[in-house]
């Protein structure tokens, strides 16, 4: 959640108090049927971005998951949800979106040292088309400001593609090739992840908002991504993540496409936990940020998941009540 909603300081204080008292852990044990799927993009110290978690922070997150959850694969989460049974222990799955190379060079060694599995969702334009993802293309062309990104995120797919071509067309030879090599997982890198026991999922080709595409174009984006990943990894790809993934960014038609193409799970960018009633093709996730373990744990617990859309005063009062109730052992 946006910690500014009930007040940043209040949330941090509540998170730290609940973690130290053991209340967060007790709450998760009581609500074991609510399963989090964590969403990362990049793990790197090279940039400061909402999409990037520093290496030290990622280590802290993984250590917390290792200590308090059984970290399982995404198919294992789907199987548990489908069975409708309460897990014997708290379980969680870890995912990465887009296909950045630091998922292999920075994140994978940390996960492997703890025996943590993950799914990496790959948008295949860098590997298939030799083209950076649209926001990176804008950065390379000097057009990556927040205002421009925000405008293009709402633009038609045709306008977005035109902006990408314009940005890349101004660059000297070799700049794009160098960026592709440094930023993104190559086919060989994806096979290396596969050999480490990390699953690969599809994330379209060019990372469009699928609901804005014509039906055939949307279906093609999904199908081509899946086919390329299966060809290069030699493994069936049955998991998908919607680009952007917010409400309205995919439709029932998109879900029907996924079913027809053989996908058994799909992750959104909607922040929520999952239970047996969750649509396996519209799973919620907990979006990882550069935040202390106390806040990370609080969001994994679901204690604050419904406060985002409340008025500030109401959310603050509700959080205070929940914190006191958890400390007394009277809030479930």
Brief overview:
With 332 residues, the protein is an alpha/beta fold. It has helices at residues 8-21, 23-30, 55-68, 74-83, 102-114, 125-128, 134-140, 146-153, 157-169, 175-183, 187-195, 215-233, 252-260, 293-301, 312-328, and strands at 37-40, 42-43, 52-53, 70-71, 91-98, 119-122, 199-202, 239-241, 265-271, 283-287.
The helix-and-strand class reads: alpha/beta
Indicate the CATH class of the largest domain.
Alpha Beta
Count of DSSP helices? 15
Number of strands: 10
CATH architectural group of the largest domain: Alpha-Beta Barrel
Q: Return the CATH topology of the largest domain.
A: TIM Barrel
What gross morphology would you assign?
Answer: globular
The termini sit apart by 20 Å
Measured as a percent range, the helix fraction is 40-55%
- Taking pLDDT < 50 over at least 5 consecutive residues as the criterion, the unreliable ranges are none
Whole-number radius of gyration?
20 Å
Query: What is the count of structural domains?
Result: 2
Largest pleated sheet:
8 strands, parallel
Q: List the secondary-structure elements in sequence, H or E.
A: HHEEEHEHEHEHHHHHHEHEHEEHH
| Name given to the CATH homologous superfamily of the largest domain | Glycoside hydrolase/deacetylase
Proportion of beta-strand residues: 5-15%
Could you tell me the mean pLDDT? 90
């Amino acid at each position: 959640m946006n910690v500014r909603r009930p007040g940043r300081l209040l949330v941090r204080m509540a998170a730290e108090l609940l973690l130290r008292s053991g209340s967060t852990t007790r709450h998760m044990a009581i609500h074991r049927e609510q399963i989090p799927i964590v969403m990362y993009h990049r793990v790197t110290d090279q940039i400061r971005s909402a999409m990037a978690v520093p290496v030290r922070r990622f280590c802290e997150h993984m250590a917390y998951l290792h200590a308090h959850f059984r970290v399982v694969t995404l198919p294992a989460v789907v199987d548990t949800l489908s069975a409708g049974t309460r897990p014997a222990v708290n379980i969680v799955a870890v995912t990465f979106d887009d296909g950045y190379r630091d998922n292999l060079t920075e994140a994978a060694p940390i996960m492997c040292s703890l025996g943590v599995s993950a799914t990496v969702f790959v948008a295949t334009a860098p590997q298939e088309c030799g083209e950076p993802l649209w926001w990176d293309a804008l950065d390379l062309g000097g057009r990556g400001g927040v205002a421009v990104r925000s405008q293009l995120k709402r633009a038609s797919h045709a306008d977005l593609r035109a902006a990408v071509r314009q940005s890349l067309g101004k660059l000297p030879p070799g700049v794009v090739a160098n960026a592709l090599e440094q930023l993104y997982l190559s086919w060989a890198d994806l096979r290396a992840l596969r050999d480490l026991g990390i699953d690969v999922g599809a994330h379209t080709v060019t990372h469009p908002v699928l609901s804005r595409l014509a039906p055939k174009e949307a279906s093609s984006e999904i199908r081509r991504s899946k086919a390329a990943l299966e060809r290069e990894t030699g493994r069936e790809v049955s998991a998908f993540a919607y680009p952007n993934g917010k409400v309205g960014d995919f439709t029932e038609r998109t879900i029907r496409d996924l079913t027809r193409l053989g996908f058994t799970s799909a992750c959104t960018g909607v922040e929520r936990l999952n239970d047996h009633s969750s649509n396996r093709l519209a799973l919620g996730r907990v979006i990882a940020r550069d935040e202390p373990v106390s806040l990370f744990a609080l969001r994994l617990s679901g204690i604050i998941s419904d406060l985002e859309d409340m008025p500030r005063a109401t959310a603050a009062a509700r959080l205070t009540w929940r914190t006191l109730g958890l400390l007394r052992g009277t809030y479930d």
